Amino acid sequence: MTARVVLAAVALTAATGAISRAQDGPRPNILFVVADDLNTRIGPYADPSLALHTPNLDRLAARGVRFTRAYTQYPVCGPARASFMSGLYPETNGVTDNGFETANHRVANPALADHPTVAGFLREQGYYTARVSKIFHMGVPGGIERGEVGSDDPDSWDFAVNIMAPETLTPGNLEKLSRGDHYGSNFSRMILPEGHEVTQADVLATDQAIAILENRAGAKPPGATNRTKLDEDAPFFLAVGFVRPHVPLIAPQRHFARYPDDEVELPEVPAGDLDDVPEPAKRNGNDIARRFRMDTAEQRKSVAAYHASISFMDEQLGRLLDTLERLGLRDNTIVIFTSDHGYNLGEHTMWQKSSLWEESVRVPLIVSVPGMRNPGGRADSIVELIDLYPTLAEMGGVGDQAPSILQGRSLVPLIESPTTASPVTSDSGLAGHAAYTITGSSGASLRTERWRYNRWGEEAEGDNEELYDHDNDPGELRNLALDADYAEALDRLRAQLARVRERARKPPTP
Are strands 29-35 and 236-241 parallel, antiparallel or unpaired? Predict the structure, then answer.
């Protein structure tokens, strides 16, 4: 290792606990891992009774900070990813659907043609940047079966790898569990015999990421007489996209064995749960959406397969963490793990994504910085995925060079001291601690410390609104929007939503 690769690159200072470095000093490497369609029913977050096997997420959380209330800006892959990569709300960057041609802010909004992604920005600042598999939107399955890129921003990367994996073409019994025919939105599962997982997307992505790490570390294979290093003084930003637990739900038998179908407990849904919500909020209901309509046995199989896929993905994360340790990189590498959005597994009778309830819009977010004074902490403040761009810029020592139009706030204060107040302040347009999410052509949501406010349409009309009190109703089962006792809270949130919407829709001025 060179003198530049030292723990001091990201050490917490003894006096203040701040993540710091001299502007001309060493900078940390960054490993950025993004799962696909992953909710917070995982080891570091879930009720222990679920007994999810995620030992590597657990160990990452034990060495980092776990954000318990982190939210996506859009509960669909393309807009969510374009948002956190650009550091801008979807209405600002123009990416509001999954169209591959427009799932890049430079294409969707010509006014942003010169605005770099977070990877492009770090590259401009001297980082070696690499992408493996799905970071921007791509077809899973479908495009990945052909090795297609989907959406990307070539200027972001020094090196990029698109994975070709069989997915639905994997030899074996692909069991369809729901009624839909669209390969990316129905439920199907495949239990792989042991040893047959080597062709799967996340295994291949991990293999390639390990190769990149070995190149960056200058690893010398046994018996080699020479040693090669690529730009040894440049820190790396390595973005690795895992496609599980996105459907199809494919995992080796050993992972399925952890979750017997008949032991799956489905969420309890009160009778008439959907009676008090607007019609657009019901569209993914099991008995309403034609692509689902699963019976109880199929629902249990879907949940079991989802959990097996998570454990399979977690196994690949473990291989990456083990590689950092083996190569001596862990002491100078920040590791960030998140997902593009959450996922419904039967709550409110809902399945998959695109709803505005908590399960669909809340995401796991774990940040592990070497040398943390109090690892294993939890930050309960409301944060957003657009906060990642300024956070990465600051941790990379170039926060003062970050684009001025970024709409998030650095999470470094929370990483240093998880119990401090949220970094999202009134000058963000949110007038307090809140997260803003949109979906489809009409859905918008504001999540504050206490409330969730959803609106389906431009104007507040009463019957197109939802209001939930998380202090007393964390399951969001009682819509208070038409309850006169909550009129004051509703008016306050309406005004708050108007402020953030105005800011999110304001034309960007790079």
Answer: parallel
Token pair for 173: 């019994």
Pairing of strands 159-161, 249-252: unpaired
Rounded CA-CA distance 395/236 in Å is 13
The residue count of the chain comes to 510
* Radius of gyration in angstroms for the set of CA atoms belonging to the chain, rounded to a whole number: 22
Which among 208, 233, 235, 230 has a CA at the least distance from the CA of 218? 230
What are the beta bridge partners of residue 132?
Answer: 161, 240
CA distance to 155, 233, 240, 506, per residue, from 90 (Å): 20, 36, 22, 11
Contact 355, 75 (CB under 8 A): yes
- Sole residue written with tokens 């509001």: 96
Would you write out the chain's pLDDT as a tens digit for each of its 510 residues?
333 333 333 343 332 344 544 344 589 999 999 999 999 989 899 877 677 899 999 999 999 999 999 999 999 999 999 999 999 999 999 999 988 666 789 888 989 999 999 999 999 999 999 999 999 999 999 899 999 888 899 999 999 999 999 999 999 999 999 998 887 789 999 999 999 999 999 999 999 999 999 999 885 555 555 545 455 679 999 999 999 999 999 999 999 999 999 999 999 999 999 999 999 999 999 999 999 999 999 999 999 999 999 999 999 999 999 999 999 999 999 999 999 999 999 999 999 999 999 999 999 999 999 999 889 999 999 999 999 999 999 999 999 999 999 999 999 999 999 987 555 443 343 335 799 999 998 999 999 999 999 999 999 998 999 999 999 999 999 999 999 999 999 999 999 999 999 999 987 776
For the whole model, what pTM was predicted? 0.93
* Residue located via tokens 């692509």: 291
Q: Which CATH class is domain 26-418?
A: alpha beta
Residue-wise burial string across 184-193, b where 16 or more C-beta atoms lie within 10 A, e elsewhere: bbbbbbbbbe
Ordered by start, the domain boundaries in the chain are 26-418
DSSP string of 400-466, one letter each residue: GGS-TT--S---HHHHH-TTSPPS--GGGTTSSSEEEEEETTTEEEEEESSEEEEEESSS--STTEE
Asked if 81 contacts 340 with a C-beta cutoff of 8 angstroms, the reply is yes
Residue with tokens 């669209």: 182
Non-local CB neighbours of 472 within 8 Å, separated by 6+ positions: none
